[in-house]
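From the methods appendix. Each design record in this collection lists the tokenized structure first, followed by the designed amino acid sequence. Records were kept in a plain field format so they could be parsed without special tools. The example shown here is representative of the layout used throughout.

RECORD:
FOLD TOKENS (984 positions):
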């Protein structure tokens, strides 16, 4: 026998050093963690959402403790029992001699080792479990849906709330038994209870009993798993084209799972009986039988049924189950009550009956007059150039659309707030004092009617009806200061003792480019930091000593943090997914951010599962909007409307869908957090919009689930798809657009969110979907179904007809130069009457200089095979429908549109033919054309110089010169290449 190996020991000094390092690490970790928790608590206390803080903390702590104690404690107990019943005497063998050194090393430290193992496993399990706090809360507070599932007859709440929790428990049960089994095996092996290489008996009696019990528990849990697997069939993807129990699942796999439940139970009894019998032959035979049964009846038999029974006639065999999937998926995504309208069924697509179309156009008094010429996704630089006022202010990359009623007329407006943009501080401004105590907020609300442009030397630009500092205009704003906004990511220290000189920059003095007016924040927002303890807390939290040293931090100071409206709502309501595009609205004279909150679930039976972030993305995601997390879900409701006051940061949650069982469940878990819908003011309700991300998810689902017949669904013969955005160099989906328009069948115009849908893998239009934002009809989804042969052009085809038109191409060549570029605005699809679709698209020109911004230059219109291209919408409509059509259709008109010489009021086919050379071989008017080209080049050079110098007046003059030069070119050179007019 080998001599025992001495156990290495540490010197006293080494122990002290290691202990000190460990204590410091624990101390710093604890201080950092406690500081983060305390700062979080202060935020919840400030916003009056401590119910959320404590409920979430308690749920996390409970799961952490239960899972940690159960996993670490039971594993440690199993190891302890294995050691406790180790054999006193072990047979002599080489294997046992090799293990003796490990026994000698472990014996003096076995308590420490066992404690460390239990603590580590407990911490790991606790951290894993606490992340499932929502699963626990929804299980504990579950609300019935009031609808049974079609297979088992159980209320849907079992699948949405109970089933995930049972699976969670089962997973932890398996983990604990496996860890206990592994720990017991290792302990028995090290201490002689399990002898792999020693002749004779391989297991002691105690080891056999313990391992039999643990294996019996494992197989018993497997029986429970088989039982839950039966219910899990409602999420099966065996059907390939649909989700839920298929023919094979119901008729082959469901009986097999039931049989396996009893087989596993018998196997578990056999293992437990081995405690008395102490012979592994019987449980081993039962285990082999279970494995063979699972392979034969659980795998092979369903595969045979699928291959030889279902696939030869899948459209018939799966019909009933596809019908379940269609009904459940529509319900899960809020599409059960979609209104389908057969639209333009007698139309021949590109062939336009001019007289009928003109009559429809003149009868339209709601849609065309409100056609939007201002694209909120393009005009942020224009708002910045005209309304920034100081460099510390800024506008988001994507502006917003909302509607207001002024002078008795409801119109949609492009709106934005003039926010603080700390990133725009100049180098000499960017100090801690300036960034966090002086430049603390933005100021002002800016709005421009979406269907108007203003004429001027610089071209068409927004008509800012609410603007400037102090804010003036037709939308009254009583409190215009913006302390909470999309661009504000820094914290600010605000407040000062009474009588102290105001420190915060508020706005420039009236009519002054140099002077300024300061202000001291007096709102209810922010966390007070008057005490030394709180100043120390925030100094640690932000790692900033100025909280302790700066005179700007005083007894009256507050800290404003978590200032992005979306972040505030997500923090106040962690059970919600928040739409990626908050928008500002003036409600009762205060600027208020309005946000949409979604309740989601990933276990709704028979519903198709999607990736949330992918389904809710489009060509604009990430450019002024926030992408949603890419989580699996198969149920969604816009259950909550949230507001954030831009001045004091007050977060208010309203139950918008009060019938949503998921929201009801969370309202039980967080009582008093969500206010009833009746608490919303009528003015606020008037600004509610149908949410974009939900709409994008729903239109994606509708591309497949608009089909009601199961056989047609299986054949996929009438599938649609979301078109790519034609105005951007991308294959990402076209974003939906808010418009103020009259839907077919409605008496008046309403504010709605719309999208065109193409035929699958074709560019022809198949349908047009709209969701109402009008308070009277909110949430009503209408789908205009176009003829099955899809003769209508889709967005890509319309865009192609624009850019290949022989009137448009020369201008695009001029606009896309070294000094400027053409910017296509949103391509809007507008149903006109009962038989036609009108496309309207603004065309902007933007210089390439640092301070350049887009200005409206042209309007493009498409109807059938006709293209209009002019300076105004009215002129473009004249080209398509004939003289006078535009004026009668746009009698509310664009205000002060840029005056230009009207082009020939005649239709131009698209795509246009290649321009023919002049009859004189190209020499007619050559000097005039050369002079026009020279004038255009000179104007473009002047425009570039003005943009580099930031001279707006010179830019306007250069654009006006460019306009005149283009007209001169069209008059002499363009006329030769224009298509022939009718009868000409």
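DESIGN:
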């Amino acid at each position: 026998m080998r001599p025992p190996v001495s156990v290495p020991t540490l010197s006293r000094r080494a122990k002290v050093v290691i202990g000190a390092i460990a204590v410091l690490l624990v101390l710093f970790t604890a201080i950092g963690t406690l500081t983060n928790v305390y700062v979080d608590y202060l935020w919840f206390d400030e916003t009056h959402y401590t119910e959320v803080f404590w409920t979430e903390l308690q749920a996390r702590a409970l799961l952490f403790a239960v899972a940690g104690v159960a996993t670490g404690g039971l594993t440690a107990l199993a190891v302890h029992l294995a050691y406790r019943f180790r054999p006193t005497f072990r047979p002599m063998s080489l294997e046992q001699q090799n293990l003796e050194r490990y026994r000698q090393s472990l014996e003096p430290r076995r308590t420490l080792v066992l404690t460390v193992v239990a603590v580590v496993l407990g911490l790991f399990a606790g951290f894993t479990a606490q992340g499932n706090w929502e699963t626990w809360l929804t299980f504990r507070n579950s609300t019935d849906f009031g609808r049974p599932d079609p297979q088992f007859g159980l209320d849907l709440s079992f699948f949405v709330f109970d089933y995930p929790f049972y699976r969670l428990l089962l997973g932890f049960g398996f983990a604990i038994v496996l860890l206990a089994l592994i720990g017991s095996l290792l302990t028995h092996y090290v201490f002689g209870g399990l002898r792999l290489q020693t002749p004779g008996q391989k297991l002691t009696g105690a080891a056999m009993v313990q391992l039999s019990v643990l294996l019996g528990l494992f197989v018993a849990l497997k029986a429970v798993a088989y039982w839950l697997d039966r219910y899990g069939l409602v999420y099966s993807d065996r059907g390939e084209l649909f989700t839920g129990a298929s023919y094979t699942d119901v008729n082959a796999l469901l009986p097999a799972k039931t049989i396996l439940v009893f087989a596993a139970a018998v196997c578990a009894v056999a293992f437990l009986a081995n405690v008395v019998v102490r012979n592994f032959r019987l449980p081993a035979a039962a285990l082999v039988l279970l494995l063979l049964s699972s392979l034969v009846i659980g795998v092979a038999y369903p595969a045979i049924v699928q291959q030889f029974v279902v696939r030869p006639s899948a459209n018939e065999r799966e019909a009933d189950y596809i019908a379940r999937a269609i009904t459940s998926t529509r319900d899960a995504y809020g599409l059960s009550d979609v209104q389908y309208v057969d639209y333009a069924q007698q139309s021949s697509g590109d062939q336009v009956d001019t007289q009928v179309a003109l009559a429809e156009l003149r009868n339209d008094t709601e849609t065309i007059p409100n056609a939007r010429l201002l694209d909120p996704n393009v005009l942020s630089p224009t708002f910045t150039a005209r309304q920034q006022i100081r460099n510390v202010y800024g506008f988001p990359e994507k502006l917003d659309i909302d509607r207001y009623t002024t002078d008795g007329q409801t119109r949609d407006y492009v709106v934005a707030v003039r926010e603080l943009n700390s990133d725009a501080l100049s180098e000499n401004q960017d100090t801690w004092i300036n960034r966090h105590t002086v430049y603390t907020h933005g100021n002002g609300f800016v709005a421009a009617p979406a269907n108007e442009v203003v004429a001027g030397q610089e071209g068409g630009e927004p008509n800012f009806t609410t603007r400037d500092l102090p804010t003036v205009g037709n939308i009254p704003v009583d409190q215009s200061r913006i302390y909470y906004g999309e661009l504000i990511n820094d914290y600010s220290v605000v407040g000062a003792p009474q009588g102290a000189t105001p420190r915060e920059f508020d706005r420039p003095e009236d009519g002054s480019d140099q002077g300024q007016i300061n202000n001291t924040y007096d709102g209810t927002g922010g966390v007070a930091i008057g005490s030394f303890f709180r100043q120390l807390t925030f100094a640690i939290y932000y790692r900033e000593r100025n909280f302790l040293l700066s005179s700007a931090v005083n007894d009256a100071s507050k800290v404003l943090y978590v200032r992005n409206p979306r972040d505030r709502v997500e923090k106040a309501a962690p059970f919600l997914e928040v739409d990626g595009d908050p928008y500002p609205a003036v409600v009762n004279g205060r600027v208020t951010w309005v946000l949409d909150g979604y309740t989601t679930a990933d276990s709704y039976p028979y519903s198709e599962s999607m990736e949330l972030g992918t389904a809710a993305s489009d060509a604009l995601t990430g450019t002024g909007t926030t992408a949603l997390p890419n989580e699996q879900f198969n149920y969604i409701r816009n259950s909550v409307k949230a507001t954030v006051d831009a001045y004091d940061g007050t977060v208010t949650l309203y139950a918008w869908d009060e019938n949503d069982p998921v929201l009801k469940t969370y309202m039980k878990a967080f009582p008093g957090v969500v206010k009833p819908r009746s608490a919303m003011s009528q003015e606020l309700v008037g600004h509610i919009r149908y949410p974009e991300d939900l709409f994008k998810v729903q239109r994606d689902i509708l591309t497949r689930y608009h089909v009601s017949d199961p056989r047609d669904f299986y054949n996929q013969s009438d599938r649609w798809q979301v078109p790519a955005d034609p105005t951007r160099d991308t294959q990402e989906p076209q974003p939906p657009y808010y418009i103020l328009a009259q839907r077919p069948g409605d008496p008046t115009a309403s504010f709605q969110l719309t999208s065109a849908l193409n035929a699958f893998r074709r560019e022809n239009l198949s349908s047009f979907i709209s969701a109402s934002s009008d308070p009277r009809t909110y949430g009503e989804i209408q789908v205009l179904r176009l003829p099955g042969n899809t003769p209508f052009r889709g967005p890509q085809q319309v865009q192609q007809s624009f850019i290949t038109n022989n009137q448009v191409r020369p201008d695009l060549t001029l606009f896309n130069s070294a000094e400027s570029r053409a910017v296509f605005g949103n391509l809007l699809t507008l149903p006109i009457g009962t038989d036609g679709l009108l496309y309207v698209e603004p065309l902007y020109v933007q210089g390439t200089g640092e301070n350049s911004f887009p200005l409206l230059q042209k309007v493009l219109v498409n109807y059938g095979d006709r293209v209009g291209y002019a300076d105004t919408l009215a002129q473009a409509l004249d080209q398509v429908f004939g003289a006078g059509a535009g004026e009668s259709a746009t009698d509310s008109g664009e205000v002060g549109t840029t005056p230009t010489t009207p082009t020939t009021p005649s239709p131009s086919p698209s795509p246009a033919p290649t321009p023919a050379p002049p009859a004189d071989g190209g020499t007619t008017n050559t000097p005039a054309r050369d002079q026009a080209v020279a004038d255009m080049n000179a104007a473009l050079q002047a425009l570039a110089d003005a943009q580099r110098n930031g001279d707006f007046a010179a830019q306007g003059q250069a654009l006006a010169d460019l306009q005149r030069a283009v007209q001169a070119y069209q008059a002499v050179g363009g006329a030769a290449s224009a298509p022939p007019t009718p009868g000409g």
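APPENDIX NOTE: The longest strand covers residues 590-601.
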